[in-house]
Amino acid sequence: xxxxxxxxxxxxxxxxxxxQTDGATEAGVLRRGFDQAKEAYILFPLLAALLLxxxxxxxxxxxxxxxxxxxxxxxxxxxxxxATYEAQMLRAIHEIDQTLKLVKYTYEAEGEPNPLRRLxxxxxxxxxxxxxxxxxxxxxxxxxxxxxxxxxxxxxPDEQQTLRHSxxxxxxxxxxxxxxxxxxxxxxxxxxxxxxxxxxxARVEVDAAYFVSSYDASKLGDQGALGLLGxxxxxxxxxxxxxxxxxxxxxxxxxxxxxENTEAVLSVNGWDGVRRYTSARQLYDLPLAVIVGLSxxxxxxxxxQQARTYLWxxxxxxxxxxxxxxxxARMSWQLAQSRLRAAEAQTQLAAAARQAGMAEIATNVxxxxxxxLNSVNISADLVTRKLRTSKxxxxxxxxxxxxxxxxxxxxxxSHDEKGKLLPSYLNQLVDALALEQQSMTEELGQLSKSVDxxxxxxxxxxxxxxxxxxxxxxxxxxxxxxxxRMNAGIIAAHRITVVRNLAETxxxxxxxxxxxxxxxxxxxxxxxxxxxxPESAPQIILRSEIPQExxxxxxxxxxxxxxxxxxxxxxxxxxxxxxxxxxGFGLHSCALAAMEMGGSLEAHSDGPxxxxxxxxxxxx
Length: 620
Hints:
Blueprint: H1 13-37, H2 40-109, H3 115-121, E1 131-136, E2 142-145, H4 157-165, E3 170-171, E4 175-176, E5 183-192, E6 198-207, H5 217-220, E7 225-230, E8 235-240, E9 243-245, H6 252-255, E10 265-268, E11 275-282, E12 288-295, H7 296-299, H8 301-352, H9 356-388, H10 393-404, H11 409-415, H12 417-462, E13 472-474, H13 476-486, H14 488-493, E14 497-502, E15 508-510, H15 512-528, E16 539-548, E17 551-558, H16 586-596, E18 600-604, E19 612-619
Parallel strand pairs: 14-16
Antiparallel strand pairs: 1-2, 1-6, 3-5, 4-5, 5-6, 7-8, 7-12, 8-9, 10-11, 11-12, 13-15, 16-17, 17-19, 18-19
Helix pairs in contact: 2-8, 8-9, 9-12, 9-15, 11-12, 13-15, 15-16
């Protein structure tokens, strides 16, 4: 059996190199993409997208929660009103039945053929204004009635047929009174003779609207429903708003599916097509059920309006957020461009900083240059926009008009309607151009001042481009003023008041670069100590004196955040800092520079919140 060689794949060295190069290229692209995504003008839109997602998710969730809560509240209200209506109907029908039983007892037990007279004398009958109590013979002819002049007597064959074989309460179908046109209901009980046969019928007739008189529009609304439904599927009475109806036929099992289930059901009511939270309850031991319905549209109107309010607010907030982020992104992009230009200037200035002591000076100079460049950009942009929208464009149109009428210019200006307007237009144009010239002159003046400021900053740096270890002739006041100029940006930003208590001192031989390095750091630290003290007026006091022969003392005093006692000896250690953005070598380098010049740097503070004093002592 022949042996097959395993098939192996090998990459040529060139292919391996290309694969590695492609991998490094992909990694470089990803790294550059990640670095670019960290830029504010890209990061802001990403954060805005997340905020928009959070806003709309929270808004839609809130709408959903409130909608569910409103649905549950409507269902609960329908169920509670159904229970209340059930109790009311049971009590009302029970009172009617008690009246019928009282008439039946008086008729049968006392043998009174007209029991109503005696019961009225005893005030045992309900008010005749609402309830019509009557007695009829087995043929339906009226025997007695609480309404003496009532001749209306509508026979009900179903009633007579039912009561011939049953002694239970009979509830009629609703009918309209031919006299009043109102829907009426009749409740009846059988009257027995001595031999147990049917001797008559006791009746209580009542306006059907009586059973829905508890309809409260403030709770049920204009589209609510309140009604009595017979087990035969015929409404004895129902009311919606101000409309009272009766006699409608519906599917009883569809409206009252379970006699033990009293929970409200959201469905479209078959009798009028309105979608309601419907609660149906079978009345105990009676062929009736109470129906209570709350219109979904009315019950959810408030929450739907609130939902629209939420959506408008979310849309408005989203629009504001988009506009704000767009503005911030544009400003960030412009700032990034300014940083690029400032970086070029920093590169040029950094090349001139040949000594270690000059590094801190150059950093401050470049920072101040960057601050001034923003002002230069604003002034230049403003002048450019004014030139683009200059009124001088109208001058060309006026000259063109004059050239067209060069032959008859005098007549054109004197008699033509447009020509008459030309002199006044030129006067107005002169005024407008004068205002433009004044405005642009002012802006160019500000631009010139900013450029001169940059020149002064650069010149100050260039004047210290000597050897760091060389002792030179120094005037202390000028050196301190130079240090203040280097920190002008941070001093202005914190609105710090600088108090100068500088004694008259002779010209001294000092290593001015190292002294300047120390002063710049001390003034900058004093300015930053004001960050957490916004309630007090920030102040820096600078003192210089020669208290004894051969010793120069310079003090930088601030009323900032102060120094904790345990940190007084640690602040000069390399890498120690109490600031989140600090690097911990500024004061350390200052202390080393003071020691290299044969002097010392000391710190004093009475504790947090009491300010601090830094004292530089040098031998002169």
